[in-house]
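Hallway conversation turned thread

IA: we were arguing at lunch whether anyone had actually written out ATP-binding cassette domain-containing protein end to end. Turns out nobody had. So, for the record, here is the sequence (333 residues) and right after it the structure tokens. Reply here if something looks off.
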Amino acid sequence: MAIVNVSGLSKVYNIAVKEDGLVATLKHFWHRQYRPIAAVKDISFEIESGEMVGFLGANGAGKTTTLKMLTGLVYPSSGKIQVAGYIPFRRDQGFLQKITLVMGQKQQLIWDLPAIDSLRMNAAVYDIPENVFKHRLGELTEMLSLEGKLSQAMRKLSLGERMKAELLAALLHQPQVLFLDEPTLGLDVNAQASVRKFLKEYNDRYGATILLTSHYMTDITALCKRVLLIHQGGLIYDGSLDSLHDSFAPYREVRVELGANYNVDAELSGFLGKYGQILHIDGQSVCFLVQREDLTRTVSQILAELEVLDLAVSEPAIEEVIGRVFSAGTVNN
Ligand SMILES: Nc1ncnc2c1ncn2[C@@H]1O[C@H](COP(=O)(O)OP(=O)(O)OP(=O)(O)O)[C@@H](O)[C@H]1O
């Protein structure tokens, strides 16, 4: 059953515009002029309970604005949203108990205090009884490997530990729906991996629904089977990561290591073109693109016609595929 329903959602920000200079500043004071910015344009999607969905888009595409509307922080210009049966912008107590929003670039825990003090305050805000608080704290501390860290001032923790403490704080009330905006932003690869591992485990253990934005594709490929792609405010793709590969990268990279008796640069670069588009030549190694439907025939042909020491076939990187989708600006799926 869908726990997030979004239909025809749009957001237009009106930003005040002002020309330079004192006169313009005075004029602006009395007679403000506004320019509309369509940050989100008529997007619709549903998320099933327990799903983990990646939300991808370039800078300024509209991801944070969408997450803010889904959590009731920003009022939509038009369209409908329901999250866990609630209308977010009403900010009902029941709604706030069911959701959480974590923003990688914003902190809720107080810098000079130990995390445990802020966590106690959160427990009071969410009306969590002491025994439940202790139980959840123990469970989450263990899952996040934060033993011994919560009694130190936040400023003394590493960036990765701080992010994990933020996640703990955001999950103390055991929300059903997690909106995560760049939760691994700025973390080193080990800390990123440990946040990912935690999110996977949290989703498995509690069946939580997660909508996640990240500029690190490893987060998305490790956690999400489905992705939403937003481009200039519009939703241009909603489907599986695998189908994205199929629709936007209907080719494979074939890397061939040729025997030493070929002078690859001089002799072969010309006629190698018949096997596919040459991507690059490096010593005796040639890499080129072959359409997926031609792959078997082309590989057999290469093996029959050339002296091949090694041959490898790979899919193009997902970053590259998504780059193609964004440059095309639309997807028919
Ligand atoms: N409070 C605001 N007032 C006016 N314009 C805004 C406001 N917040 C965002 N915008 C504009 O709306 C558009 C979408 O911004 P948004 O922050 O949603 O993008 P994003 O996809 O989250 O980008 P990023 O990946 O850089 O965080 C941008 O053009 C941005 O400048």
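OS: looked through it. The mean pLDDT is 90.
IA: good, adding that to the notes. Residues 250-314 form a domain with the Alpha-Beta Plaits fold (CATH 3.30.70.1150).
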